[in-house]
Design brief:
InterPro entries: Aldolase/citrate-lyase_domain, Citrate_lyase_beta/mcl1/mcl2, Pyrv/PenolPyrv_kinase-like_dom, Pyrv_kinase-like_dom_sf. Its cofactor is Mg(2+). GO terms for molecular function: lyase activity; magnesium ion binding. Keywords: Lyase, Magnesium, Metal-binding. Pfam families: HpcH_HpaI (PF03328). It is globular, with a radius of gyration of 21 Å. Helix content is about 45%, strand content about 15%. By secondary structure, the chain is an alpha/beta fold. The chain is built from twelve helices and ten strands. The protein has an eight-stranded parallel β-barrel with strand order 1-2-3-4-5-6-7-8, surrounded by five helices. Strands 9-10 form a two-stranded antiparallel ribbon. Helix 2 (about 40-55) runs parallel beside helix 3.
Length: about 300
Amino acid sequence: MRSRRTTLAVPASNPRFIEKARELPADEFFLDLEDAVAPQAKEEARAHVVAALNAGGWGDRVRVVRINDVTTPYAYRDVIEVVEGAGANLDCLMLPKASSPDHVVWLDLLLTQIEQASGLPVGRIGIEAQIEDARGLTRVEEIAGSSRRLETLVFGPGDLMASLNMKTLVVGEQPPGYTEGDAYHFILMRILLAARAHDLQAIDGPYFGVRDVEAFTRAARRSAALGFDGKWVLHPAQIEAGNAVYSPSQEDYDHAELILDAYDHATRVQGRGAAMLGDEMIDEASRKMALVIAAKGRAAGMERTRSDESSA
């Protein structure tokens, strides 16, 4: 599992922003060739992307490029120039406005052809698919199962809100007048269910009030509570909050590791299907739940502070 607690959007046409991004502690960054780049700047932006990826300095962060959507005249050149120029230093391509599984299949096929022609390992470059309109949401299960390259499904709130005619102008915020519950709950759950059914990660979309860290944190906590793996960030101020929200607490991480230890001892040494951890009974279901928390903690680089229940 790649850690994607925070995914930093970086305009590919701005070398200063690209350089700044190298210093920021987001788990993933994506160099954006789509919405952040004007049509007349897209060709030059591709060159910036290739140079930035090949220059390195990204550490262990996930390296992603968002191409233009498949209905535009830019998409195929984005894929060809970026992968031929810097495919060895690229982890994933992000596919915006994925409204059909055919869009993912097209990208998968084109990637395979470029990899074969360029001598790159076939299948190593992953795909992140953005769900950004009503058509994509209604076909999200098909999209999630359309390619072995898929690693994540990403909620694209701005375009999806427009697609649904939502009455709001702040991307990521609840629409005015909606006072009962969360207007995005159904959308988030549908994306999450499709992702988990195909062993993919689920990433929440951005919150555009970039300086309101409290509001960003509030929005992030909703999707984190459901089980989302991370969220887009648009500003350095959002990164620390996002990393904290999508990481388990130290107490929960330690507890998860203790459950795994205790259950392993009970089944492997004692031959039992259930055990006690202090006053808590644990079984196979407990192990599965603990694996989720432990995996997220390990991916985030957390270390245990407790090795047995007696040290609690």
